[in-house]
Amino acid sequence: MLHSVNLDKEKCKGCTTCIKQCPTEAIRVRRGKAHILTERCIDCGQCIRVCPHHAKKAVCDPLSDLEKFKYNIALPAPSLYGQFHNLDDINIVLTALLSLGFDDVYEVSRGAEMISDLTRRELAKKDTPKPLISSACPAATRLICMRFPKLVKNIALHIAPVEIAAMHAREEAVQKSGLKPEEIGVFFITPCPAKVTAVHNPLLLPESVIDGAISIAEVYKRLLPAMKQVEEPQPLAHSGIIGIGWARSGGEASAILNDKQLAVDGIQNIIDILEAVENGFLPDVEFLELNACNQGCVGGCLTIENPYAAKARLKRLMKFLPISRNKLMDDDLDRVKGKPDTLLKYAPDRALDEDRAAAMAKFMRINSLTEELPGLDCGSCGAPSCHALAEDIVLGMASEEDCIFHMRDRMRYMAGNGDADEYLPPPFRTYAEDEDDSSEAERDLDLDTDKED
User: Fold this and answer.
1) Among 30, 118, 165, 285, which has the minimal tally of Cβ within 10 Å of its Cβ?
2) Which of 385, 363, 380 is nearest to 426 (CA)?
């Protein structure tokens, strides 16, 4: 699977900041550079947010791809509308998109209202597993398939709003233009890299119905001057509060019109809640909305505006809109559901061995090595934790001497009676505080403390 999150090796300093923040431990630092383990990456974009050197980047499709088609349709995510100051009419944004090379616009929020309608129907059925977990956030869905096998059956098996929006947009364009479906390009304007990956590797479809994913950040800088030129916006908006509300955390959950719902944003918060659900600690929750980005899609790392400010702007835009303007038609029921050969299933990030006995032996070795390591999870070895290093050692990706503390012991052995602590960073040295060789700064600090007393 091709991932949208990539590393710019020229910018990477090997600082290990990213390895501690990755929720799936998908990053290692080796030979002074970060390395992304593709089998573990869920494209959540957390490493992009925290990298101080901007070495992580999301690879999206360029606007120039519009030249490949005779007719192009923009699918703007509702989070796009929260990026602009003093915006009082969504039609201004939609009309301005037509000047960027698009021939038509179809709102993703329309598809969101259709999926909300379907979710309400599913929750009314007695055989629906509870809590029903939204599949709208691809990063959260892939996380469940990787780490929470018991909850895979709870994931809603219907396609994302952008996919049903793309289907309707292409069908309408065929009627308007008279062109063949393959001559029409459908492009998603996306707030996050996880959805870029989902466009090219859909979770519940055999192949993508979307031709490309363009970042909000790229469209934003071209939209600003185009919006200033809009004098009479065209009436292109056809969605209501429910659809636009999907852009922020809690929007999808509130759309089910049921108080037995829970909305969670932030990847670590998602992990905590999923552990609670898996252990049966939330029996009253019937629907679970998960957003890997803080505050929902408005917090995606491909957006421009602060997520809290964008959320407030969306709230103002929604104030005078109808509740909803779209429902799922009966003709759509079959195609919005996941295909039998693409249904979600447990997919562990890394198998220790194909042979069960060998895998168990490696598992025991990993636990044994973890006990032998210091347990500080300092990251100096380039792995995010001592357990991750032990796993890398057993799988042949690292050695025990990669641990700085094991290296110290080896240096002591090689140096005879010498002390190798001087080779360690200060936080990891074992000198006693009352030794005579304490630094002059430490002695000065003691004198200052005595004066205060």
Assistant:
1) 30
2) 380
Residues composing the chain: 453
Q: What is the pLDDT of residues 351-367, one digit of tens each?
A: 788 899 999 999 999 99
- Sequence-distant (6+) residues with CB within 8 A of 295 are 248, 249, 265, 307, 308, 310, 311
pLDDT for 431: 55
pLDDT, tens digit (0-9, with 9 covering 90-100), for 146-174: 999 999 999 999 999 999 999 999 999 99
Angle between helices 386-394 and 356-372 (to 10 degrees): 140
Count of C-beta atoms within a 10 Å radius of residue 404: 16
| CA–CA separation, 83 and 63 (whole Å) | 19
Q: Do the bridges between strand 71-76 and strand 104-105 make them parallel or antiparallel, or are there none, so unpaired?
A: parallel
Contact 149, 346 (CB under 8 A): yes
The DSSP symbol for 49 reads H
How far apart (Å, rounded) are the C-alpha atoms in residues 187 and 212?
Answer: 5
Class of domain 5-58: alpha beta
Q: How confident is the model at residue 434 (pLDDT cuts 50, 70, 90)?
A: very low
pTM value? 0.88
Local confidence band at 2 (pLDDT 50, 70, 90 cut-offs): confident
Q: Which among 204, 123, 191, 104 has a CA at the least distance from the CA of 163? A: 204
**Cβ contact 101:66 at 8 Å:** yes
**C-beta separation of 163 from 40 below 8 A:** no
CB within 8 A of 407, min separation 6: which ones? 401, 423
Confidence of residue 446 (pLDDT cuts 50, 70, 90): low
Type of residue found at 168: H
Mean pLDDT of the chain: 90
CB 212 within 8 A of CB 82: no
440 pLDDT above the threshold of 70? no
Residues 6+ apart with CB under 8 A from 368: none
Q: Are strands 5-7 and 56-58 parallel, antiparallel or unpaired?
A: antiparallel
* CATH class of segment(s) 356-452: mainly alpha
Domain boundaries, the chain: 5-58, 63-342, 356-452
Q: Residue 419's pLDDT band (boundaries 50, 70, 90)?
A: low
Place of tokens 């693409």: 342
Residues 199, 205 contacting (CB under 8 angstroms): no
**CA distance readout (Å), 292 to 251, 267, 312, 385:** 14, 5, 19, 22
Tell me: cis bond preceding 131? Omega within 30 of 0 counts: yes
Q: Which amino acid is at 275?
A: E
Q: Which two tokens stand for residue 425?
A: 């960073």
Q: Which residues, in sequence order, are CB contacts of 71 under 8 Å at separation 6+? A: 103, 104, 173, 177, 179, 183, 184, 185
